[in-house]
Amino acid sequence: MKLRKFVDALPIPPLLKPTLRSGEYTYYEVTMKEAKQALHHDIPETTIWGYEGIYPGPTIEVVQGEKVFIKWMNDLPEHHLFPIDHTVHGAEKEIPDVRTVVHLHGGRTEPESDGYPDAWFSKGFGKFGSFFQKSVYEYDNQQSSRALWYHDHAIGLTRLNIYAGLAGFYLLRDWREQSLNLPSGEYEIPLLLQDRSFREDGSLAYPVQPKDNVSGIFPSIVPSFFGDTIVVNGKVWPYLDVAPRKYRFRLLNAANARFFRLTLDSDQLFYQIGTDSGFLEKPIGVKSLLLAPAERLDVIIDFSNLGGKKITLKNDAPTHFPIGDPVDPDTTGIVMQFRVTMPLSTIDTSVIPDFMGPIQWLPEHTARNNRYLQLSEEKDWYGRPLFLLDQKKWDDPITEQPHVGTTEIWNFVNTDNDDHPIHIHLVQFQLLDRCSFDVDFYKKTKQIKYTDRPIPPHAGERGWKDTIRCPPGFITRIIIPFFPYTGQYVWHCHMLEHEDYEMMRPYRVLPPS
Ligand code: C2O
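That is the input. Now the predicted structure with CU-O-CU linkage docked in place:
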């Protein structure tokens, strides 16, 4: 159904209040609950699943070095909001339909607290998965400032749990960020971008099966979900009243599969200052911003001298990026609106810094191992598309086992037609380059024939990352230091329908050799 645009104000998720704050640590309790929430003025309230019963979840704000414990609890109903495909890996009929586990995306987290997909638990910890170890997760927050996010990661169900609302921001602060004099407080706005589809009664709609369901399976997983409505911070096409000054936006693509390529209809520049995992060295002015699922961007928009103007944030990324259906300019092509209607209460002394700080670039010769990992589309037993990493399934034996303290280069050899955003838990990495190759020749011979010179990273990707776009027909090379923990983690495509159906692999960080 089609809803009016810019009728609701953009909500800002509230900060989560600690249960206990001592000199040594901060302790939070977070309960996942079903609730009703108004997502648009013209439809009845929507049933959502939210951390603390709100969607998006409350923002967790921490400072570097602060030790944080969070008890994540599940008080959700016993029946899922959406149809469950029991043929998907880890989603067998015998295990509870409603199971959850929380991953802090981008966090350098010990394995027991990382939200391993098989560490799920049901309501009241009644049942739990084989990897469940504890209910109070520990985060030591040793990383520098950046926007992390927390979201559900239950095996075979992540797409549905996040779609129901289980995602929120986790902002890590440090002294360097403080010293930069960026727009802050009410002038720093998190934007969690998603697409959704609604029914007339206000409920969220998620497909029961693909359009051309040849499998005979019902319900049956869709290869990727695309909604017809854009939702920001849990409101449909919202507006934000701003003052004529600089604002800092923490952008997060929390959609299941949709890419966003953002522009401002005022033809203004965005000043990008950061990536997934902290600041760039220098800001860059860009007219468009590309965000794959799970990527974050740190940007400043300057509304000075635009008093009285209405500025629309638009999207022109096709589905199945880069080759699918174009956006509908009247629906998925629109994200939200900024209205420069507020008075300037004080003079804007915040800045767009010239330099945020040096990044330590990893030289290629430090890499101990060079892995080639294919991203491919195959067919499953029932004739449905099946996406695989290195042609292996979730249950196949572990093949990626770096030693702690070593650095590796991973080459993602994409022989599929989609751009897959690959995320690796625990680590941050740097993009080396992308190089086109002969896909058909590779498929026949498993040998690489490059067809051009490598393309160095675009200025906006020259920083630390935890999720990287791997375009079709290219080999994307990243360099990754593995530390400080040993143990079992996962890496996967962050299109949620892909990670739920075999495009996810365990990997293990081994003790020093
Ligand atoms: Cu944002 Cu493994 O996930």
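Residues 103, 105, 151, 153, 294, 423, 425, 490, 492, 494 surround CU-O-CU linkage (CB under 6 Å).
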